[in-house]
Amino acid sequence: MERKLRWGILGCAGIAVRAVIPGLQQSERSEVAAIASRDADKAQRTAEQLGIGTAYGSYEALLADDSIDAVYIPLPNHLHLPWTIRAAEAGKHVLCEKPIALDAAEAARMAEACSEMGVHLAEAFMYRHHPRYRLIRELVAAGELGELRGIHGAFTFNNAAHHENIRYRRDWGGGSVYDVGCYPISAARLILGREPEAATAHALFSPEHDDVDMMASGLVEFADGVALTFDCGMWAASRNTLEVLGTKGSIEVPSAFVAGPDGGYNFFVVSGGERREIEVSRANQYALQGDDFARTVLDGAAQSFGADDAVNNMKVIDAVLRSTRERARIEIQ
To answer: Which helix (H) or strand (E) holds 293?
Structure first.
């Protein structure tokens, strides 16, 4: 029987409870062994709800547990840096929720700390682990679409009435670019297989939501005249789509980043005057993410998406956010 990676969860955030923990529990190579909260009662209730064996009333106590191999960090964005470093110092491998940090400099510090302690760091973009994105990349590489001309991504939802939500705390890393704009940025880099050169973006800032960007639209420039156009928002009707456009055809991904437990992973290829549906398995992308990380830690497999990828994604986010404030085109270094 293969050894399983023993996970500790730092916090009882909604994404952890709804999706990541159940996904890890479905993973072939993972075991969720402990969960921590600053509220011991909340940790205990969540542990009982999800069938987790150990609950801790502090993050420090979980990190002191020698039986834990890796931690998942779903804390607010401004806490990713300190707790990743604390986890690395405790010898734990780290899967950190997106965006990995508040900026690329923080992400680089996190990567350096994990490297120095000999532990792995990955950003929790679960969508990348589903086989449909491998299929999409293969279709593009095979020339199915001809020469690539552009990518458009959209990720919006409307949660604006919930003013107490942590997404509306500017000093905590709130805003739509951090929360959902990071997905199409990541997807364009994944599909194109290279880093962009510059970004220009425009945003709606809301005084009643601590002046965070509640909606943003952007242009991210890649070489050879190819660009990502995207929009993201937390005060708009729900959309979650991706389109890849070429000279001979296009790929449409209706549920590009978040798909329901009953499926929604299929996508469409439009070429030669036909629109055909590509059927994809209903595998849980959170479970696949856990298996991928476990293979790296337990088997020494190469990371599919390492810390450098996370730093590079933050460089683009930095440029986009700077552009929204300065109303200028920002080159990405």
So the answer is: helix 285-299
* C-alpha–C-alpha distance, residues 296 and 302, integer Å: 6
| Three-state secondary structure call for residue 91 | coil
pLDDT tens profile 255-298: 999 986 556 899 999 999 899 999 998 899 999 999 999 999 99
Cα gap 167→177, rounded to integer Å: 11
Please give the Cα distance from 304 to 61 (Å, whole number): 30
Structure confidence at residue 98 as a pLDDT band (50, 70, 90):
very high
Angle between helices 80-89 and 104-117 (to 10 degrees): 10
DSSP-derived secondary structure letter, 271: E
d(CA 293, CA 121): 9
For residue 125, the model assigns a pLDDT of 98
pTM for the model: 0.96
Angle at which helix 307-326 crosses helix 182-192, to 10 degrees, equals 120
Report how far residue 208's alpha carbon sits from residue 6's, in angstroms, rounded to the nearest whole number: 42
Residue 286 tokens, joined: 């959170």
Predicted pLDDT of residue 263: 62
Angle at alpha carbon of residue 193, lines to 189 and 199, rounded to 5°: 35
CA angle (97, 310, 108) in 5-degree steps:
105
- Say whether 104 sits in a helix, a strand or coil: helix
Q: What is the pLDDT of residues 216-240, one digit of tens each?
A: 999 999 999 999 999 999 999 999 9
Span 70-76, average pLDDT: 98
Question: How many Å apart are CA 88 and CA 22, to the nearest integer?
Answer: 24
CB 71 within 8 A of CB 64: no
Q: Is 248 a catalytic residue?
A: no
Name the E strands within the chain: 5-10, 30-36, 54-56, 70-73, 93-96, 121-123, 148-158, 198-206, 212-221, 227-233, 235-246, 249-253, 267-271, 274-278, 330-331
Closest CA to 200 of 19, 55, 71, 327: 327
Residue with tokens 């979980």, as numbered in its chain: 62
Active-site residue, selected from the candidate residues 4, 42, 92, 98: 98
